[in-house]
Every structure is written in structure tokens, then in C-alpha cells.
Design a protein that fits this description.
The complex is a heterodimer of chains A (502) and B (646). Chain A has 502 residues and is mainly alpha-helical. Chain A is built from 20 helices and 2 strands. Chain A has helices at 8-22, 26-56, 85-104, 112-131, 135-156, 161-188, 201-207, 212-229, 238-245, 248-273, 275-301, 306-325, 330-361, 372-375, 377-390, 397-409, 415-443, 460-478, 480-488, 493-499; strands at 64-72, 77-83. The longest helix of chain B has 47 residues, at 567-613. Classes of the chains: A mainly alpha (502), B mainly alpha (646).
Chain lengths: 502, 646
């Protein structure tokens, strides 16, 4: 079991939990968190190299590092693992955000031990989700990632935290209910008559046995189930409240990684297993996600709380992810995954910076702040860079992702797709409006509050956290083809074979 | 041209940006300024040698046996592959217009780097300023050497961002912050059109590559298969949308509103970005795609109309402004519109497409004399600490170098021979007349207005009435050599640039072409210009009440022009009243109260329902028994009734 590299993505966090239990003071806790997450970053890079090496050596299988261990034989539930380019990219993203999130929670108070405990438990869910290809195990890890959120927000949050925590949990659980139904339905149609049923993604796709009428029922179930976590209109309202109340690292992980679980699941389960239904029903969800994109951006224009602005901006950007996945062609889907990476990194950067600014000024209301560029130039410059990435400046990650999506979406020739593509394109202007509005009010102009003049700039751990994220954002933005090729290989013929296109 | 030189032309400014951006704070001002200027100086030498090699080496890479210049792709690396054919490459395309632009950009940029050593002396953020200048130079150079339309779009965005950063350089000033925001958002809006245009065009042609599009424009037309959309061919739509991007960057009406406000940036920045280089990007874009535009004359007609209206509008407004930088800004808008008109009226069938050459020629000369005028304005502002000409007057005695060079700039822009502007403007007017007398007369009239408002400005600054400078405790004087040297160089160039045999170097199909003056057109335009200057002399040479009388006699028009025909108010209304108050706020309200409200409602309903039925679980045995008995009774009764009925 332990010769498969993937299993270590779960083993390391478990060891971290063990280490945490032995910790006596905050220094040891930090050490465990940093060492563990560094190990995870290293592991994910090793995985990337190994993966690329195998591909270069001519491995053409859809998934590599495939393995399966029986967990509960009567129901044929296995811990089945395997990765393709998308999962590799997601694992790297998660590791980076966990690392930077640990730095961002350097001074977490109170109960640092418990905080990291839940945070690491959450990350077990995330990593587990990305490595498994067994629907049941996948769902289990999904739930493991969601539940700690309730406590993390409820205990360490700010503002109206009980309400937000409850709302977030209940809405996501509501999504899970749909999802559960969808997954069980898929399981019961996973194999042709007379053959044993399976939970394994690859086998289900291979069998391609889900009846079309059942697909019409199961596709919306799974898509909405995952879509709730992907902040799909109209199931996105947990996001502004949840993010606003969550502590910094939790916002980072939640927006940076957890929301990606939604997009990833929509692709990996809903579309991958039920391409015919996806093709037929895409228009409904295209309308919803198209609305998300513009609606989120417009809502962000008039918010005054930094976290609300960023949460609505996430609704818009994550809407673009689902929008692109539904375009069902290689280019747009590649763009969707790149957008997931890009959004994950830059939104984590945003939330980290907002947390750092809030930690100093004790307000997130942009009307109460101004001229921070003069007071904390480092944080302010980082904020501008994050903003530029968000509004799609070439050289940073947002641009390449969005452009790939737009070019891919434009390959559809009918009026419906064209109109919605152009509507989605409009978001680049609206994004510029709200980003520059915040930058102008928050960072530039005269200093608003005289008390802010005494504030200090970033500490070393804060610098480390933000610089890591900025470098990652710039890496995607400057060398996009590396990531595009990594991802693109994955869009195996399976989906397109069924659709008879590409 | 070897690869290393061309890579260096792009890499040097980029490295300077990173160096100054990251380590600038650790350097002294002097160090940062000298590093930036040196870096630009080396880039200048490399760019000159590249352009020289391209035009004059006679290598078969650059010119064929028949004397036609060739387009040479020095390098072209894949940056992002969307599909097998739609690939963004980063490359270096060398052809007459890109070689010319290399010269223009590096010259002006170097002058501005040098000038800023004096102008920005002692400013906080000096290093940041040089970093941004380098970033801008990098982006602009990347834009002009783009081998494909997506590369151009990438650098187009970068240019926009560096312009944003430089306009907002004095970031503690609210007016600068809002000006930079406005510039970015307006051009972003235009870029949306550009992007959609690229998407449409590349969808049909299945390529982003300039060379393959422009060398076979018939294929581009054929690839659309005559598809129509809302009464126009899709190619027209694509070209018009791409032109919309150009309208944004080149400040064509109605997307011009950002440029006058952009004057909030430091004056050398205005000279570099908002006069000489970035704002001509739109002209360059149309010129780059010109063979494709020739396929759809409708698109060119739209270019002409937009250009002609903008030229007239901006010239009228320029006659009324009091802020000298704003006068220059409107004059820039008007002159760029001249270039647009020149492209719009050019046809391959008429006079070997003279308009194309004229447009590029004017771009070149305008860059020189407009940079000169802006840098001169910078020296003036530096001396009197005000942008308004009302606090100037009689400065010719105090600032002789600035005076002479500014005068040369004014003569050049007014189109007086033998200064540079005369020759290029003459070619534009020739092209306009050959397309249609309407455009010829229209543009000649605008040229007359140009002469008038420039000399109005000149007389108000250097003649008119001298305010009491001593009273302000500070007598104006010429600037240090770092500032006057660029003025002198640019003035010298403005004197001689007109004699460059431009047609030999640049033409739409890259064939050598002989310029010859069209005497009737040239004579008319000179007479008109001289009359306009004479009028300006009468009105503004000495302080008198004539200007006020004239203004009062056409009060409505004057006020409207002074308020820039209320375009800004219109935009404010659209953005604040409509976008913010009628779209964003209702959406935000809807989200909070309807969408989120319905989620909360589910929760409340569940809560209420549980409250309603929880009374049943009282824990009281007697009540359970009672309910049990009543239930049993009910079932019994129902059963009996059913049996009886059946």
C-alpha cells in the first residue's frame, strides 16, 4: 500500500495530527504545521515530476499511479486512487495554499492547537478528494473537508459567526444531499445488466452504462450538488457570509481550495460520467453560470466590506469555471482548470492580505480606510498585484485562464453560446471597475484615519506567505503553456468520443 | 537581424523594471535614475541599429530584388497554445512600421528618461517612477513588434496597466487616483471590443498571425464565407470591434474622455505615453491590419467618420481650454484623428494608398513635436508651478530656450514649411482630397483651427501680459541641462524630420514610393494656417478684451466647448446613475434580500415546522396514551365506515 506515492497525501496530514497532539507550545505547533505543509508541497512537486516523466516515457493511460485497496467488500467500496494532470495541478494548489495558510495563521488566537487540528483535518479531506477515483471514498473525503468548516468559522470567526457558520454548513450539506442521491444513482447504473456494480470512476466511464433517462435525473443532481460548493447562482449566498466571518486561513483554504472541489467534482463526476446529459442539459446551467459571472461582478461593485467584495468576485470567477466546463470542448475546459488554479491562488492571496490588513486596522470597511499605500507599502503593493491578477493583466494568472476560456467558448457557432460568451467577456470590464474602486479607496488617496499612521508593514511570515502566492500567480501567468499542456492531456477522448465531436 | 539584439530590445527594459521595482527602495535616487536612463540608452542604440539594418543594409532578408521591403519574423516562440492553429506566440516582427515605431518609442522614451532626471528630481517615489517608465517602454516595444494579434493584445493590456500606474503616480492626490481609474476603465471597455473582434476574426481565419492575415487578405474575406450579422458582414463587425480597441487607446470620440484627465500624471509621462507613443497604438493597430481593412471599405469609412468628427471636436475644444496640458491633450486627440482619417481615406486603388504612408509619417513627426511641446510645457510648469496659462505670460524673456523650442513645436504642428508637420499633414490632406473633397475641405479647416489654438496657447504663455513674478517670490528661468537638452534635440528633429523621404521607407504594400508636394493642396493649407496664426496674433499677442468679446458673441458654443460638450457629465450619469444605482445596487439588494432571503426563509420554515410539531413529543405519558387512543379510535371508525360503504 505504501509504495504508492499518492497515499502519502493522506498519510502526511495524519502524521501531522499525531505530531500536533504532542505539541506543548505555539512554536511547536507552528513547526508541525510548516514542516508538514512543506512536506506536502515537496510531495506534490515530486508527484508532478514523476507524472511528467511517465507521460514523457509514453504512458497513455488516462490516470497514472492507479491503485485500489478494498475497504468494504460487500458494497464493493474501495480506496481507489489515481491522478491525471488536473488532479496533479489541484494537489499542488492545495499544498501551496495550506502552506501559505499556515503562515497566515501564525498568531492565531485562542486555542492554536485545536485550530490547526481542524485545519489539518480539513486538508485531509481535500487531499483525499483529489486523489481518489472511487465515488464513495470521494464523497467521504468531501464531507471530511466540509464539516470542520463549521467549527473553524464558529469558534475562530468574527462578526456574525454563528449565523454564518450554520448557514454555510447547512447549504453545503443541502448540496451534499443532492450529491449523495446522484452518486448512489450512478452506482446502481454503473455496469450493464448482470455485471457487478462499481464505484470506480474509470470503470463506470468505461462501462458507459448509465441509461440516458437516468442521466437526465442524475446529472442535475450531481452538478447542483457540486455546484453549490462551486458558488453557482442561485446557491451561492453561503459564500459572502461564510467568507466574511471566517478567519484568514480558513477563507484562504475555503475559497482557494474547497470551492475548487465543486468545479473539480462537476467535471470529474457529472460531466465525465454523463456526457450525453451534459451535452443536452448544458444550456440550463450555462444560463445559471453565465448569470453568476456577471451578477457576482456587479454585486461586488457596490460592496463596502473587503471580504464581501472578494466573495462576490469569487462567485463571478468560479462561475466562469463552471461556465467553461459546460462548453464541453478541450480548450474551454483547459481554461476552466487554469481558472481554478488561478482563482485559487489569487483569491487566497486576497484573503491573506485582507486578513493582514484587518489584523492591523480592525476594520474591513473600505470607507473607513484610505491611503494604506503610504503606511504599509508592502501589503499594498501585494494587494495591487492581486487585483491586477484578478482583472486579467497579462503576465499574471487570470489573463491566460480567461483568454483560454473565451477562445474555447467561442468555438461554438450557435447564437446562444456566442451571446453568453460575450456576456461573460463583459465581466472583464466590470472586474476592472470593482478592483480599481477598492484599490483607489483602500490603498491610494490621502490617509483616512490618523490612527492608521502608527501601523506597521508586513512581518516576515506574512511576507513569506504573500510572496509564495505571488510567485505562483506569476508562474502560471508567464509560463501558461506548461500548465495548459499538463491539463490538456487529460481531456481524453472519453467525453468527446461520446459526444462525437472534437 | 540577429535574435540576440531583438531579444535584448525587449528584455532590457523588462529587466530594468524588475530591478528598479524590486530593489529600487534600496537604491539612491541618482542611482535609480542613471540605471534607468542607461538601460534605455542601450535599448535606443540597439533599436536604432535594428532599424538602420532593416532599412539600409539591403540584405535579402529585408528587401527583395524588385525593391519591395519584406516582413521578417526574427523569432516567434509559442507561449500558449489554445488549439493546434490558434497559438499565442511571443515574437518579433520586423517590417517598415515596426522598425519606425522602434525608433519613435526609444527616442521619445530616452528623451523622457533624461528629462525626468531633472523634472522629477527629489520627488518621493523616484525609483518607482523609473521602474514604471521601463515597464511602459517594454510593453510598448512588445506591442509594436507583435507577430500576432494576441501578442498585440497582451502588450496592449500591459501598456494600459503601465499607463494606469503612471497617471496615478501621485497616488495621494484624489484627482490623480480617479483619473487613472477612469483611463483604465474606459480603455478596458474599448478592449472588450478588441477582444471580441479578435475572437470573431480568429474563429474564421483560424489564426492570430499578422503575416498570414495581411499577406492574403482575400483569404480572410473568403474564410468568413460571406456570413452576415445584423446587416453587416462579420468581417466588418470584427474589424469595427478591433477598431473600437484602437478608439479607446487612441482617444477617439466618444471614448476620448480619459485622455484630458490623464494629464494628472507627471508631465514627462504625458509626453511619452499620452502624446507620442501609447495613444498612437490605435493608429498602429489599424495600420497593422490595413490590408484586411481594405477588404471591407465600410470599416474604413467608419474609421474616417470617427476620425474626422474627433478631429473637429477636439480642435474646437482646444480653442477654449486654459490649462496648457489640456490644450495639448486635445490637440493630441485632434492630431491622432488626423492619422485615423488618413488611414480611413486610403485605398489601394487611389494614388498608391498615400493615406497609409501619410498616416505613418504624421505619426512619426507628431511624436517628435508633440513630445517637444509637452516637455516644453513641463519646463513651464516646473518654472511657474501652475498648469494654467493665466499665471503665465511674457515668459519669452525669462525662458529663451523653452521659448524658441516651443515656438518650433507650434510651427511644426501648425503646418508651416519647412517644419516637420507641414510635410506629413500635407500628405494627409492630399489623401483626403483624393478620397473626397468633403474630407479634404474638412481636414483643411481643422488644420486651420490647429494653427489657431496652438498660437493662442503660444501667445498666452510667452507674450500677452506679464504677471508679477517677483511678487510670487520666484522668477521663472530655464530648466537644467537634463531638461533643456531633450528640448533642443527634439526641436532639431522637428525642423528636419519633414525632409525624410518617408515614402521610400514606408508604404502600405512596402513598395518604395516617391513623395512629391501637391502644390495646390500645400499652398491652400499654408495660407489657411498663416491666416489662423495671424488671427491668433491679433487676438492674443497683447492683453486686450477681444478674446472675451469673441467668446461672448458665441457664448453658448464657447461654454459648451469649454465644458468639453458635456461628455464627462454624460459618462458620470451613465456610470453612477445607471450602472451603479440602477444595476449594481438593485442586484446587490436582490442578492441579499431575495436570493439569500429565500434561503433564510427555508431555514425559518424548517424551524417553525419543528416548533409546530414538537408539542407532540411532550414526554408526558398521559398525553401519549390519549393520542394513541384517539388514533386507534380514528382508524377503527375509518375501517368501519369503509366496510359499511363497500
Amino acid at each position: 500500500m505504501f509504495e504508492n506515492i499518492l497515499i502519502y497525501f493522506v498519510v502526511i496530514p495524519v502524521l501531522m495530527l499525531g505530531g500536533l497532539a504532542l505539541c506543548k507550545n505555539i512554536k511547536q505547533i507552528r513547526a508541525v504545521a510548516v514542516v508538514g505543509s512543506l512536506a506536502l508541497v515537496g510531495l506534490s512537486i515530486a508527484l508532478l515530476l514523476g507524472y511528467l516523466e511517465q507521460r514523457a516515457a509514453g504512458a497513455t493511460a488516462e490516470m497514472l499511479y492507479v491503485d485500489s485497496w478494498t475497504w468494504f467488500a460487500p458494497l464493493n467500496i474501495n480506496l481507489a486512487v489515481g491522478v491525471d494532470g488536473i488532479s496533479v495541478a489541484m494537489l499542488i494548489l492545495s499544498a501551496i495554499i495550506l502552506l501559505t495558510g499556515s503562515f497566515a495563521s501564525w498568531k492565531i488566537d485562542p486555542l492554536p492547537k485545536e485550530f490547526f487540528l481542524w485545519l489539518i483535518l480539513l486538508s485531509i479531506g481535500v487531499f483525499g478528494f483529489f486523489i481518489t477515483i472511487d465515488l464513495f471514498t470521494m464523497f467521504m473525503f468531501y464531507e471530511v473537508a466540509l464539516i470542520p468548516m463549521y467549527l473553524l468559522i464558529g469558534v475562530w470567526g468574527s462578526g456574525n459567526k454563528n449565523y454564518s457558520a450554520m448557514k454555510l454548513t447547512l447549504m453545503l450539506m443541502g448540496g451534499s444531499a443532492f450529491l449523495m442521491l446522484g452518486l448512489i444513482g450512478i452506482h446502481y447504473h454503473s455496469a450493464p445488466e448482470g455485471q457487478p456494480l462499481t464505484w470506480n470512476l474509470l470503470e463506470i466511464a468505461q462501462n458507459n452504462a448509465i441509461d440516458r433517462n437516468w442521466q437526465y435525473f442524475l446529472f442535475p443532481m450531481t452538478f447542483v450538488g457540486f455546484g453549490v460548493l462551486g458558488a453557482m447562482f442561485p446557491f451561492h449566498t453561503w459564500s459572502p457570509d461564510g467568507h466574511a466571518s471566517a478567519p484568514t486561513a480558513v477563507s484562504m483554504l475555503h475559497a482557494g481550495v474547497l470551492m475548487k472541489l465543486g468545479g473539480y467534482g462537476c467535471f470529474r463526476v457529472a460531466i465525465y460520467l454523463m456526457p450525453e446529459a451534459a451535452n443536452e442539459l448544458a444550456w440550463i446551467f450555462l444560463i445559471l453560470t453565465g448569470i453568476s459571472v456577471v451578477y457576482g461582478a456587479f454585486s461586488a461593485c457596490v460592496q463596502t466590506d473587503l471580504k464581501y467584495i472578494n466573495a462576490y468576485s469569487s462567485v463571478s470567477h468560479c462561475g466562469l469555471v463552471l461556465f467553461a466546463i459546460l462548453m464541453l470542448n478541450t480548450t474551454a475546459m483547459t481554461g476552466a482548470i487554469m481558472q481554478m488554479l488561478s482563482h485559487g491562488l489569487m483569491t487566497a492571496l486576497f484573503f491573506a492580505l485582507i486578513g493582514m490588513i484587518y489584523g492591523r486596522t480592525h476594520t474591513r470597511d473600505i470607507r473607513m480606510m484610505g491611503g494604506l499605500m503610504k503606511i504599509m507599502p508592502f501589503l499594498a503593493v501585494c494587494y495591487v498585484i492581486a487585483g491586477m491578477a484578478s482583472l486579467g493583466l497579462p503576465g499574471l494568472s487570470g489573463f491566460v485562464a480567461e483568454m483560454t476560456i473565451f477562445v474555447g467558448s467561442f468555438q461554438h457557432t450557435d447564437m446562444f453560446h456566442r451571446v453568453f460568451t460575450i456576456v461573460a467577456c463583459c465581466s472583464i470590464v466590470i472586474t476592472a471597475v470593482y478592483i480599481l474602486r477598492v484599490v483607489g479607496k483602500l490603498l491610494l488617496g490621502p490617509v483616512q484615519d490618523k490612527h492608521h499612521l502608527e501601523l506597521t508593514d508586513a512581518t516576515w511570515w506574512e511576507r513569506l506567505s504573500t510572496i509564495t502566492l505571488i510567485v505562483s500567480v506569476a508562474a502560471i501567468g508567464c509560463f501558461p503553456n506548461f500548465f495548459a499542456e499538463l491539463i490538456k492531456f487529460t481531456f481524453s477522448e472519453n467525453i468527446f468520443k461520446v459526444l462525437g465531436m472534437n | 537581424m540577429d535574435q540576440i539584439t531583438s531579444v535584448l530590445i525587449l528584455a532590457l527594459p523588462l529587466c530594468m523594471f524588475l530591478l528598479l521595482g524590486v530593489f529600487g527602495n534600496k537604491m539612491s535616487h541618482k542611482m535609480a535614475g542613471i540605471l534607468g536612463t542607461l538601460g534605455m540608452g542601450v535599448t535606443l542604440i540597439l533599436a536604432y541599429s535594428t532599424a538602420f539594418t532593416y532599412f539600409f543594409s539591403g540584405s535579402e532578408l529585408f528587401i527583395d530584388a524588385a525593391g519591395n521591403r519584406l516582413q521578417s519574423v526574427v523569432f516567434d516562440h509559442t507561449w500558449l497554445a489554445f488549439t493546434d492553429n490558434l497559438v499565442i506566440k511571443l515574437g518579433f516582427l520586423l517590417d517598415p512600421i515596426s522598425a519606425m515605431m522602434l525608433v519613435v518609442i526609444t527616442t521619445i522614451s530616452f528623451m523622457v528618461h533624461l528629462y525626468s532626471l531633472g523634472y522629477m528630481h527629489g520627488e518621493t517615489g523616484f525609483q518607482r517612477y523609473y521602474a514604471f517608465l521601463s515597464l511602459f517602454s517594454f510593453s510598448m516595444l512588445g506591442l509594436v513588434v507583435a507577430t500576432n494579434i494576441f501578442q498585440m493584445y497582451i502588450f496592449w493590456e500591459l501598456v494600459g496597466a503601465s499607463s494606469y500606474l503612471l497617471i496615478g503616480f501621485y497616488y495621494t492626490k484624489p484627482s490623480a487616483v480617479s483619473a487613472s481609474k477612469k483611463a483604465f476603465i474606459v480603455t478596458r471597455f474599448a478592449d472588450l471590443g478588441f477582444l471580441v473582434g479578435i475572437l470573431i476574426l480568429s474563429f474564421y481565419t483560424n489564426t492570430f498571425d499578422f503575416v498570414s492575415m495581411t499577406s492574403n487578405p482575400q483569404n480572410v474575406l473568403a474564410s468568413t464565407g460571406g456570413a452576415m450579422f445584423m446587416g453587416g458582414s462579420v468581417l466588418t463587425w470584427a474589424l469595427v470591434l478591433i477598431f473600437m480597441g484602437g478608439m479607446g487607446k487612441s482617444a477617439m470620440m466618444p471614448l476620448h474622455i480619459w485622455l484630458p484627465d490623464a494629464m494628472e500624471g507627471p508631465t514627462p509621462v504625458s509626453a511619452l505615453i499620452h502624446a507620442a507613443t501609447m495613444v498612437v497604438a490605435g493608429v498602429f493597430l489599424v495600420a497593422r491590419m490595413f490590408p484586411v481593412y481594405l477588404m471591407e471599405v465600410t470599416a474604413l469609412e467608419i474609421v474616417t467618420w470617427v476620425g474626422a468628427l474627433t478631429a473637429l471636436y477636439a480642435a474646437i475644444v482646444a480653442c477654449t481650454q486654459v490649462d496648457i496640458k489640456r490644450v495639448l491633450a486635445f490637440s493630441t486627440i485632434s492630431q491622432i484623428a488626423f492619422m485615423m482619417v488618413a488611414l480611413g481615406v486610403a485605398r489601394d486603388t487611389i494614388h498608391e494608398g498615400v493615406g497609409y504612408m501619410a498616416s505613418m509619417f504624421h505619426l512619426f513627426t507628431h511624436a517628435m513635436f508633440k513630445a517637444l511641446l509637452f516637455l516644453g510645457a513641463g519646463a513651464l510648469i516646473h518654472a511657474v508651478h501652475s498648469n494654467d496659462y493665466t499665471s503665465m505670460g511674457g515668459l519669452r524673456k525669462y525662458m529663451p530656450i523653452t521659448h524658441i523650442t516651443f515656438l518650433i513645436g507650434c510651427l511644426a504642428i501648425a503646418g508651416i514649411p519647412p517644419f516637420a508637420g507641414f510635410f506629413s499633414k500635407d500628405e494627409i490632406l492630399v489623401a483626403a482630397f483624393e478620397n473626397s473633397p468633403l474630407w479634404g475641405i474638412w481636414m483643411t479647416a481643422v488644420a486651420g483651427l490647429t494653427a489657431f489654438y496652438m498660437f493662442r496657447l503660444y501667445y498666452r504663455i510667452f507674450w500677452w501680459n506679464e504677471p508679477d513674478y517677483e511678487h510670487h517670490g520666484h522668477v521663472p528661468h530655464d530648466a537644467p541641462w537634463t531638461m533643456t537638452l531633450p528640448l533642443i534635440i527634439l526641436a532639431a528633429v522637428s525642423c528636419v524630420a519633414g525632409f525624410i523621404p518617408f515614402g521610400e521607407l514606408v508604404s502600405w504594400n512596402r513598395e518604395a514610393y516617391h513623395i512629391h508636394l501637391n502644390i495646390p493642396v500645400a499652398a491652400t493649407s499654408v495660407i489657411v494656417a498663416v491666416c489662423a496664426i495671424a488671427l491668433a496674433t491679433v487676438m492674443y499677442r497683447k492683453e486686450n478684451s477681444l478674446p472675451d468679446k469673441v467668446a461672448n458673441s458665441v457664448k453658448g458654443l464657447w461654454t459648451a466647448a469649454y465644458n468639453r460638450f458635456y461628455f464627462d457629465e454624460l459618462y458620470l450619469f451613465i456610470t453612477h446613475k445607471i450602472i451603479f444605482n440602477l444595476v449594481s445596487r438593485p442586484i446587490a439588494w436582490f442578492d441579499r434580500h431575495i436570493i439569500d432571503g429565500s434561503m433564510d426563509m427555508f431555514a425559518t420554515l424548517a424551524h417553525k415546522a419543528s416548533g409546530a410539531i414538537k408539542g407532540l413529543q411532550s414526554g408526558n405519558i398521559q398525553s401519549y396514551v390519549l393520542i394513541y387512543l384517539m388514533g386507534a379510535l380514528l382508524i377503527g371508525v375509518v375501517t368501519v365506515v369503509c366496510v359499511v360503504i363497500l
